[in-house]
Amino acid sequence: MLNTLSGRFLILTTAFVMLAEVLILVPSVARFREDYLRDRLERAQIASLALLADDMIEMDLEAELLENAEVLNVVLRRDEVRQLVLSSPIPQPISATHDLRDPGALTLIGDALHQLLSPENELIRVIGAPVRDAGLLIEVTMETRGLRAAMIEYGLRILILSAVISVLTALLLIFAVRLLLVKPIKGVVRNMQRYAAAPEDARGIIRPTAGIRELREAEDALSSLQTELTHALKQKERLAQLGGAVARVSHDLRNILASAQLITDRIEASEDPLVRRLAPKLVNSITRAVSLCESTLAFGRTEEPAPTLGLVRLRDVVQDVIDGENLSLEASCIALDSAVPATLNLRADPEQLFRVILNLVRNARQALESTGREGRISVTAGEEEDRWWIRVSDTGPGVPAKVREHLFQPFHGGARKGGSGLGLAIASELVRGHGGHLTLSASSAEGSTFEIYLPKGDGTL
Protein backbone atom coordinates (compact mmCIF):
# COMPACT_ATOMS: atom_id res chain seq x y z
CA MET A 1 0.00 0.00 0.00
CA LEU A 2 2.78 2.44 0.92
CA ASN A 3 4.59 1.76 -2.38
CA THR A 4 1.55 2.76 -4.45
CA LEU A 5 0.74 6.24 -5.67
CA SER A 6 -2.56 6.17 -3.79
CA GLY A 7 -0.95 5.13 -0.49
CA ARG A 8 1.73 7.79 -0.60
CA PHE A 9 -0.77 10.44 -1.60
CA LEU A 10 -2.94 9.44 1.38
CA ILE A 11 -0.01 9.78 3.79
CA LEU A 12 1.14 13.11 2.36
CA THR A 13 -2.36 14.55 2.36
CA THR A 14 -2.96 13.52 5.98
CA ALA A 15 0.42 14.93 7.04
CA PHE A 16 -0.12 18.27 5.30
CA VAL A 17 -3.64 18.70 6.63
CA MET A 18 -2.44 17.87 10.15
CA LEU A 19 0.38 20.40 9.77
CA ALA A 20 -2.13 23.04 8.70
CA GLU A 21 -4.35 22.20 11.67
CA VAL A 22 -1.40 22.46 14.07
CA LEU A 23 -0.58 25.88 12.66
CA ILE A 24 -4.19 26.85 13.30
CA LEU A 25 -4.23 25.18 16.74
CA VAL A 26 -1.70 27.47 18.42
CA PRO A 27 -3.57 30.74 17.64
CA SER A 28 -6.84 28.98 18.53
CA VAL A 29 -5.51 27.97 21.96
CA ALA A 30 -4.20 31.49 22.48
CA ARG A 31 -7.64 32.89 21.65
CA PHE A 32 -9.26 30.36 24.00
CA ARG A 33 -6.92 31.47 26.82
CA GLU A 34 -7.81 35.11 26.23
CA ASP A 35 -11.53 34.32 26.29
CA TYR A 36 -11.04 32.25 29.46
CA LEU A 37 -9.30 35.12 31.27
CA ARG A 38 -11.86 37.68 30.11
CA ASP A 39 -14.62 35.41 31.35
CA ARG A 40 -12.94 35.34 34.77
CA LEU A 41 -12.74 39.13 34.73
CA GLU A 42 -16.46 39.38 34.01
CA ARG A 43 -17.28 36.91 36.77
CA ALA A 44 -15.12 38.89 39.19
CA GLN A 45 -16.88 42.12 38.21
CA ILE A 46 -20.27 40.55 38.80
CA ALA A 47 -19.12 39.22 42.15
CA SER A 48 -17.92 42.69 43.16
CA LEU A 49 -21.38 44.12 42.53
CA ALA A 50 -22.60 42.39 45.68
CA LEU A 51 -20.09 44.29 47.73
CA LEU A 52 -20.90 47.58 46.00
CA ALA A 53 -24.56 47.04 46.82
CA ASP A 54 -23.85 46.28 50.45
CA ASP A 55 -20.60 47.45 52.03
CA MET A 56 -20.79 44.80 54.73
CA ILE A 57 -21.06 41.17 53.57
CA GLU A 58 -20.24 38.07 55.49
CA MET A 59 -16.92 36.36 54.98
CA ASP A 60 -18.61 33.13 53.89
CA LEU A 61 -20.47 34.97 51.13
CA GLU A 62 -17.27 36.72 50.01
CA ALA A 63 -15.45 33.38 49.81
CA GLU A 64 -18.32 31.90 47.79
CA LEU A 65 -18.27 34.81 45.37
CA LEU A 66 -14.51 34.42 44.85
CA GLU A 67 -14.86 30.66 44.41
CA ASN A 68 -17.57 31.07 41.77
CA ALA A 69 -15.41 33.59 39.94
CA GLU A 70 -12.37 31.24 40.32
CA VAL A 71 -10.18 34.13 41.50
CA LEU A 72 -8.46 35.04 44.76
CA ASN A 73 -8.64 38.85 44.75
CA VAL A 74 -10.63 41.47 42.86
CA VAL A 75 -9.46 45.07 42.52
CA LEU A 76 -11.53 47.83 40.86
CA ARG A 77 -10.26 51.20 39.84
CA ARG A 78 -13.06 53.76 39.75
CA ASP A 79 -12.48 57.50 39.58
CA GLU A 80 -8.70 57.07 39.85
CA VAL A 81 -9.17 55.21 43.13
CA ARG A 82 -7.87 51.65 43.38
CA GLN A 83 -10.15 49.61 45.61
CA LEU A 84 -9.69 46.02 46.83
CA VAL A 85 -13.23 44.78 46.53
CA LEU A 86 -12.92 41.06 47.27
CA SER A 87 -9.95 39.32 48.82
CA SER A 88 -8.71 36.04 50.22
CA PRO A 89 -5.36 34.75 51.47
CA ILE A 90 -2.60 34.62 48.80
CA PRO A 91 -0.88 31.18 48.92
CA GLN A 92 2.27 32.25 46.99
CA PRO A 93 3.88 35.25 45.30
CA ILE A 94 2.51 36.47 41.98
CA SER A 95 4.71 35.18 39.13
CA ALA A 96 3.39 37.22 36.16
CA THR A 97 0.99 39.98 35.15
CA HIS A 98 -1.10 39.86 31.97
CA ASP A 99 -2.78 42.97 30.58
CA LEU A 100 -5.75 42.17 28.32
CA ARG A 101 -6.73 45.73 27.49
CA ASP A 102 -4.77 45.85 24.20
CA PRO A 103 -2.81 42.63 23.77
CA GLY A 104 -0.80 41.84 20.62
CA ALA A 105 -1.23 38.58 18.71
CA LEU A 106 2.37 37.49 19.29
CA THR A 107 2.06 38.31 23.00
CA LEU A 108 -1.07 36.18 23.33
CA ILE A 109 0.54 33.25 21.46
CA GLY A 110 3.74 33.47 23.51
CA ASP A 111 1.83 33.58 26.82
CA ALA A 112 -0.32 30.62 25.73
CA LEU A 113 2.72 28.49 24.84
CA HIS A 114 4.39 29.39 28.12
CA GLN A 115 1.23 28.41 29.96
CA LEU A 116 1.07 25.00 28.23
CA LEU A 117 4.74 24.26 28.83
CA SER A 118 4.64 25.22 32.57
CA PRO A 119 3.10 22.34 34.54
CA GLU A 120 3.52 24.12 37.93
CA ASN A 121 0.53 25.86 39.49
CA GLU A 122 1.43 29.58 39.44
CA LEU A 123 -0.29 32.73 40.69
CA ILE A 124 -0.88 35.42 38.04
CA ARG A 125 -2.40 38.89 37.93
CA VAL A 126 -4.84 39.66 35.10
CA ILE A 127 -5.80 43.22 34.18
CA GLY A 128 -8.66 44.15 31.90
CA ALA A 129 -11.30 46.78 31.15
CA PRO A 130 -14.63 46.38 33.01
CA VAL A 131 -17.70 45.68 30.93
CA ARG A 132 -20.24 48.44 30.36
CA ASP A 133 -17.66 51.07 31.39
CA ALA A 134 -18.06 50.21 35.05
CA GLY A 135 -14.69 51.73 35.97
CA LEU A 136 -11.24 52.29 34.61
CA LEU A 137 -9.95 48.75 35.01
CA ILE A 138 -10.49 45.53 36.86
CA GLU A 139 -7.70 43.41 38.24
CA VAL A 140 -7.89 39.83 39.51
CA THR A 141 -5.44 37.41 41.01
CA MET A 142 -5.88 33.74 40.08
CA GLU A 143 -4.15 30.38 39.92
CA THR A 144 -3.12 28.81 36.60
CA ARG A 145 -4.08 25.21 37.42
CA GLY A 146 -7.61 25.49 36.07
CA LEU A 147 -6.55 27.63 33.12
CA ARG A 148 -3.93 25.13 31.95
CA ALA A 149 -6.30 22.16 32.33
CA ALA A 150 -8.96 23.96 30.26
CA MET A 151 -6.40 24.85 27.58
CA ILE A 152 -5.20 21.23 27.33
CA GLU A 153 -8.76 19.92 27.11
CA TYR A 154 -9.58 22.45 24.38
CA GLY A 155 -6.38 21.63 22.45
CA LEU A 156 -7.09 17.89 22.55
CA ARG A 157 -10.58 18.44 21.20
CA ILE A 158 -9.12 20.51 18.36
CA LEU A 159 -6.48 17.86 17.61
CA ILE A 160 -9.02 15.03 17.52
CA LEU A 161 -11.27 17.06 15.26
CA SER A 162 -8.29 17.90 13.05
CA ALA A 163 -7.32 14.24 12.77
CA VAL A 164 -10.85 13.29 11.73
CA ILE A 165 -10.96 16.11 9.17
CA SER A 166 -7.51 15.10 7.85
CA VAL A 167 -8.50 11.48 7.35
CA LEU A 168 -11.80 12.38 5.67
CA THR A 169 -10.06 14.91 3.43
CA ALA A 170 -7.36 12.41 2.51
CA LEU A 171 -9.92 9.71 1.70
CA LEU A 172 -11.87 12.09 -0.54
CA LEU A 173 -8.69 13.21 -2.26
CA ILE A 174 -7.43 9.66 -2.72
CA PHE A 175 -10.75 8.72 -4.29
CA ALA A 176 -10.43 11.66 -6.68
CA VAL A 177 -6.79 10.82 -7.48
CA ARG A 178 -7.61 7.18 -8.18
CA LEU A 179 -10.46 8.23 -10.44
CA LEU A 180 -8.66 11.04 -12.27
CA LEU A 181 -5.02 9.89 -12.30
CA VAL A 182 -4.34 6.36 -11.10
CA LYS A 183 -7.00 4.71 -13.24
CA PRO A 184 -5.86 6.42 -16.49
CA ILE A 185 -2.20 5.70 -15.67
CA LYS A 186 -2.98 2.03 -15.10
CA GLY A 187 -4.73 2.03 -18.45
CA VAL A 188 -1.58 3.37 -20.12
CA VAL A 189 0.53 0.74 -18.32
CA ARG A 190 -1.79 -2.06 -19.45
CA ASN A 191 -1.57 -0.78 -23.01
CA MET A 192 2.24 -0.72 -22.84
CA GLN A 193 2.28 -4.30 -21.54
CA ARG A 194 -0.14 -5.44 -24.25
CA TYR A 195 1.90 -3.65 -26.92
CA ALA A 196 5.16 -5.13 -25.61
CA ALA A 197 3.69 -8.63 -25.99
CA ALA A 198 2.94 -8.05 -29.71
CA PRO A 199 4.58 -4.85 -31.04
CA GLU A 200 3.92 -5.82 -34.67
CA ASP A 201 0.15 -5.79 -34.08
CA ALA A 202 -1.14 -2.30 -34.90
CA ARG A 203 -4.26 -2.96 -32.83
CA GLY A 204 -2.13 -2.60 -29.69
CA ILE A 205 -1.26 1.05 -30.41
CA ILE A 206 -2.78 3.28 -27.73
CA ARG A 207 -5.65 5.59 -28.66
CA PRO A 208 -5.39 8.84 -26.62
CA THR A 209 -8.57 9.41 -24.60
CA ALA A 210 -7.39 11.16 -21.40
CA GLY A 211 -9.11 14.40 -20.44
CA ILE A 212 -6.17 15.68 -18.39
CA ARG A 213 -3.82 17.69 -20.59
CA GLU A 214 -0.53 16.32 -19.24
CA LEU A 215 -1.73 12.71 -19.43
CA ARG A 216 -3.14 13.33 -22.91
CA GLU A 217 0.27 14.63 -24.04
CA ALA A 218 1.89 11.47 -22.65
CA GLU A 219 -0.63 9.29 -24.51
CA ASP A 220 -0.03 11.23 -27.74
CA ALA A 221 3.74 10.80 -27.39
CA LEU A 222 3.35 7.08 -26.61
CA SER A 223 1.00 6.60 -29.57
CA SER A 224 3.50 8.29 -31.90
CA LEU A 225 6.35 6.18 -30.52
CA GLN A 226 4.40 2.93 -30.85
CA THR A 227 3.35 3.80 -34.41
CA GLU A 228 6.95 4.50 -35.45
CA LEU A 229 8.21 1.38 -33.69
CA THR A 230 5.58 -0.84 -35.32
CA HIS A 231 6.45 0.60 -38.72
CA ALA A 232 10.18 0.11 -38.05
CA LEU A 233 9.64 -3.51 -36.97
CA LYS A 234 7.63 -4.26 -40.09
CA GLN A 235 10.31 -2.62 -42.23
CA LYS A 236 13.00 -4.57 -40.39
CA GLU A 237 11.13 -7.80 -41.02
CA ARG A 238 10.82 -6.99 -44.72
CA LEU A 239 14.51 -6.08 -44.88
CA ALA A 240 15.43 -9.33 -43.14
CA GLN A 241 13.38 -11.29 -45.64
CA LEU A 242 14.90 -9.31 -48.48
CA GLY A 243 18.38 -9.87 -47.05
CA GLY A 244 17.79 -13.60 -46.89
CA ALA A 245 16.61 -13.63 -50.50
CA VAL A 246 19.61 -11.54 -51.62
CA ALA A 247 21.97 -13.89 -49.79
CA ARG A 248 20.47 -16.94 -51.51
CA VAL A 249 20.55 -15.23 -54.90
CA SER A 250 24.13 -14.05 -54.32
CA HIS A 251 25.18 -17.58 -53.39
CA ASP A 252 23.71 -19.11 -56.54
CA LEU A 253 24.92 -16.22 -58.71
CA ARG A 254 28.44 -16.58 -57.33
CA ASN A 255 28.49 -20.25 -58.39
CA ILE A 256 27.27 -19.34 -61.87
CA LEU A 257 29.82 -16.55 -62.20
CA ALA A 258 32.58 -18.86 -61.00
CA SER A 259 31.78 -21.18 -63.89
CA ALA A 260 31.74 -18.21 -66.26
CA GLN A 261 35.11 -17.12 -64.89
CA LEU A 262 36.61 -20.50 -65.79
CA ILE A 263 35.31 -20.13 -69.31
CA THR A 264 36.80 -16.67 -69.68
CA ASP A 265 40.19 -18.11 -68.81
CA ARG A 266 39.92 -20.20 -72.01
CA ILE A 267 38.70 -17.21 -74.01
CA GLU A 268 41.80 -15.23 -73.05
CA ALA A 269 43.90 -17.87 -74.85
CA SER A 270 42.02 -17.29 -78.16
CA GLU A 271 44.04 -16.14 -81.21
CA ASP A 272 41.20 -13.91 -82.43
CA PRO A 273 42.32 -10.26 -82.01
CA LEU A 274 38.79 -9.03 -81.23
CA VAL A 275 38.30 -11.74 -78.61
CA ARG A 276 41.72 -10.99 -77.06
CA ARG A 277 40.80 -7.30 -76.89
CA LEU A 278 37.37 -7.82 -75.30
CA ALA A 279 38.27 -10.73 -73.02
CA PRO A 280 39.96 -8.63 -70.27
CA LYS A 281 36.90 -6.41 -69.98
CA LEU A 282 34.70 -9.47 -69.67
CA VAL A 283 37.04 -10.98 -67.05
CA ASN A 284 37.04 -7.71 -65.05
CA SER A 285 33.24 -7.52 -65.13
CA ILE A 286 32.84 -11.10 -63.97
CA THR A 287 35.50 -10.62 -61.26
CA ARG A 288 33.67 -7.56 -59.92
CA ALA A 289 30.39 -9.47 -59.92
CA VAL A 290 31.96 -12.37 -58.00
CA SER A 291 33.51 -9.90 -55.52
CA LEU A 292 30.13 -8.23 -54.99
CA CYS A 293 28.46 -11.56 -54.30
CA GLU A 294 31.18 -12.58 -51.85
CA SER A 295 31.03 -9.21 -50.04
CA THR A 296 27.26 -9.37 -49.79
CA LEU A 297 27.40 -12.87 -48.33
CA ALA A 298 30.13 -11.84 -45.88
CA PHE A 299 28.21 -8.80 -44.69
CA GLY A 300 25.03 -10.83 -44.30
CA ARG A 301 26.68 -13.13 -41.75
CA THR A 302 25.46 -11.68 -38.46
CA GLU A 303 27.51 -14.23 -36.54
CA GLU A 304 30.73 -12.22 -36.90
CA PRO A 305 32.78 -13.38 -33.89
CA ALA A 306 33.88 -10.95 -31.21
CA PRO A 307 37.55 -9.95 -31.50
CA THR A 308 40.11 -12.05 -29.63
CA LEU A 309 42.27 -9.32 -28.17
CA GLY A 310 45.97 -9.69 -27.61
CA LEU A 311 49.24 -7.83 -28.13
CA VAL A 312 49.93 -7.54 -31.87
CA ARG A 313 53.12 -6.33 -33.55
CA LEU A 314 51.52 -3.90 -35.97
CA ARG A 315 54.45 -3.75 -38.36
CA ASP A 316 54.09 -7.47 -39.19
CA VAL A 317 50.37 -7.10 -39.93
CA VAL A 318 50.93 -4.09 -42.20
CA GLN A 319 53.79 -5.85 -44.01
CA ASP A 320 51.54 -8.87 -44.71
CA VAL A 321 48.99 -6.53 -46.29
CA ILE A 322 51.62 -4.76 -48.40
CA ASP A 323 53.21 -8.04 -49.55
CA GLY A 324 49.85 -9.38 -50.66
CA GLU A 325 48.92 -6.22 -52.54
CA ASN A 326 52.32 -5.95 -54.20
CA LEU A 327 51.60 -9.21 -56.02
CA SER A 328 48.85 -7.38 -57.88
CA LEU A 329 51.02 -4.31 -58.51
CA GLU A 330 53.94 -5.89 -60.40
CA ALA A 331 53.16 -3.99 -63.60
CA SER A 332 51.56 -1.02 -61.90
CA CYS A 333 52.83 2.48 -61.21
CA ILE A 334 51.41 2.51 -57.66
CA ALA A 335 53.84 2.32 -54.75
CA LEU A 336 53.11 0.97 -51.26
CA ASP A 337 55.19 1.92 -48.25
CA SER A 338 54.99 1.60 -44.46
CA ALA A 339 56.34 3.79 -41.66
CA VAL A 340 55.20 1.75 -38.68
CA PRO A 341 57.66 1.61 -35.76
CA ALA A 342 59.09 -1.86 -35.25
CA THR A 343 58.47 -1.66 -31.49
CA LEU A 344 54.83 -0.62 -31.71
CA ASN A 345 52.55 -3.27 -30.16
CA LEU A 346 48.85 -2.72 -29.72
CA ARG A 347 45.89 -4.63 -28.28
CA ALA A 348 43.78 -6.07 -31.12
CA ASP A 349 42.62 -9.17 -32.95
CA PRO A 350 45.34 -9.76 -35.58
CA GLU A 351 43.02 -11.35 -38.18
CA GLN A 352 40.38 -8.62 -37.92
CA LEU A 353 43.00 -5.86 -37.88
CA PHE A 354 44.49 -7.39 -41.05
CA ARG A 355 41.08 -7.27 -42.74
CA VAL A 356 40.56 -3.62 -41.74
CA ILE A 357 43.93 -2.45 -43.08
CA LEU A 358 43.55 -4.60 -46.20
CA ASN A 359 40.18 -3.02 -46.96
CA LEU A 360 41.59 0.49 -46.62
CA VAL A 361 44.72 -0.23 -48.69
CA ARG A 362 42.74 -2.04 -51.38
CA ASN A 363 40.20 0.79 -51.61
CA ALA A 364 43.06 3.26 -52.02
CA ARG A 365 44.73 1.08 -54.68
CA GLN A 366 41.50 0.73 -56.66
CA ALA A 367 40.91 4.50 -56.45
CA LEU A 368 44.41 5.16 -57.79
CA GLU A 369 44.04 2.57 -60.54
CA SER A 370 40.85 4.28 -61.71
CA THR A 371 42.86 7.45 -62.45
CA GLY A 372 45.44 5.65 -64.62
CA ARG A 373 48.30 7.67 -63.17
CA GLU A 374 51.10 7.14 -60.69
CA GLY A 375 50.31 7.17 -57.00
CA ARG A 376 51.47 6.21 -53.54
CA ILE A 377 49.79 4.55 -50.56
CA SER A 378 51.35 5.02 -47.13
CA VAL A 379 50.58 3.31 -43.83
CA THR A 380 51.79 5.04 -40.66
CA ALA A 381 51.04 4.47 -36.99
CA GLY A 382 51.80 5.78 -33.53
CA GLU A 383 50.43 6.01 -30.01
CA GLU A 384 49.18 8.62 -27.57
CA GLU A 385 48.59 8.51 -23.84
CA ASP A 386 45.24 6.72 -24.04
CA ARG A 387 45.06 5.32 -27.59
CA TRP A 388 46.84 3.95 -30.66
CA TRP A 389 46.33 5.37 -34.15
CA ILE A 390 46.85 3.94 -37.63
CA ARG A 391 46.76 6.18 -40.71
CA VAL A 392 46.27 5.01 -44.33
CA SER A 393 46.96 7.80 -46.86
CA ASP A 394 46.96 7.89 -50.65
CA THR A 395 47.55 10.37 -53.43
CA GLY A 396 44.36 9.43 -55.22
CA PRO A 397 41.47 11.54 -56.50
CA GLY A 398 39.79 11.89 -53.08
CA VAL A 399 36.31 10.88 -51.91
CA PRO A 400 33.42 12.72 -53.59
CA ALA A 401 31.43 14.95 -51.22
CA LYS A 402 28.19 13.10 -51.97
CA VAL A 403 29.76 9.77 -51.02
CA ARG A 404 31.11 11.08 -47.68
CA GLU A 405 27.58 11.49 -46.27
CA HIS A 406 27.07 7.69 -46.18
CA LEU A 407 30.68 6.56 -46.37
CA PHE A 408 30.49 3.83 -43.71
CA GLN A 409 26.95 2.62 -44.47
CA PRO A 410 26.57 -0.68 -46.34
CA PHE A 411 25.71 -0.42 -50.05
CA HIS A 412 26.05 3.39 -49.87
CA GLY A 413 29.71 4.21 -49.31
CA GLY A 414 31.28 2.87 -52.49
CA ALA A 415 33.25 5.62 -54.18
CA ARG A 416 34.57 3.36 -56.94
CA LYS A 417 32.34 2.61 -59.90
CA GLY A 418 31.23 -0.99 -59.68
CA GLY A 419 32.11 -1.25 -55.97
CA SER A 420 29.70 -2.76 -53.47
CA GLY A 421 30.11 -0.17 -50.73
CA LEU A 422 30.65 -2.93 -48.16
CA GLY A 423 34.41 -2.70 -47.58
CA LEU A 424 34.35 0.43 -45.44
CA ALA A 425 31.18 -0.66 -43.64
CA ILE A 426 32.80 -3.98 -42.67
CA ALA A 427 36.04 -2.24 -41.64
CA SER A 428 34.16 0.29 -39.49
CA GLU A 429 32.16 -2.49 -37.81
CA LEU A 430 35.33 -4.46 -36.98
CA VAL A 431 37.01 -1.35 -35.50
CA ARG A 432 33.94 -0.62 -33.36
CA GLY A 433 34.17 -4.18 -32.08
CA HIS A 434 37.58 -3.22 -30.67
CA GLY A 435 36.07 -0.20 -28.90
CA GLY A 436 37.57 2.26 -31.37
CA HIS A 437 36.41 4.14 -34.45
CA LEU A 438 37.34 4.66 -38.09
CA THR A 439 37.17 8.11 -39.67
CA LEU A 440 37.96 9.89 -42.93
CA SER A 441 40.21 12.63 -41.59
CA ALA A 442 41.11 14.29 -44.91
CA SER A 443 40.02 14.12 -48.54
CA SER A 444 40.87 16.39 -51.47
CA ALA A 445 42.18 16.28 -55.02
CA GLU A 446 45.63 15.55 -53.58
CA GLY A 447 44.47 12.38 -51.82
CA SER A 448 42.61 10.91 -48.84
CA THR A 449 43.52 9.83 -45.32
CA PHE A 450 41.68 7.29 -43.18
CA GLU A 451 42.48 7.04 -39.47
CA ILE A 452 41.90 4.14 -37.07
CA TYR A 453 41.81 4.83 -33.33
CA LEU A 454 41.99 1.97 -30.82
CA PRO A 455 41.69 2.60 -27.05
CA LYS A 456 44.32 1.48 -24.59
CA GLY A 457 41.78 1.12 -21.77
CA ASP A 458 38.52 -0.85 -21.50
CA GLY A 459 36.24 1.97 -22.61
CA THR A 460 35.59 3.39 -26.04
CA LEU A 461 36.99 6.65 -27.23
From TrEMBL:
Residue stretches in coiled coil: 215-242
S-adenosyl-L-methionine in keyword set: no
EC number(s) given by UniProt: 2.7.13.3
Residues of the Histidine kinase domain: 248-458
Entry keyword set: ATP-binding, Coiled coil, Kinase, Membrane, Nucleotide-binding, Phosphoprotein, Transferase, Transmembrane, Transmembrane helix, Two-component regulatory system
Spans traversing the lipid bilayer: 6-30, 158-181
Name listed for the protein in its UniProt record: histidine kinase
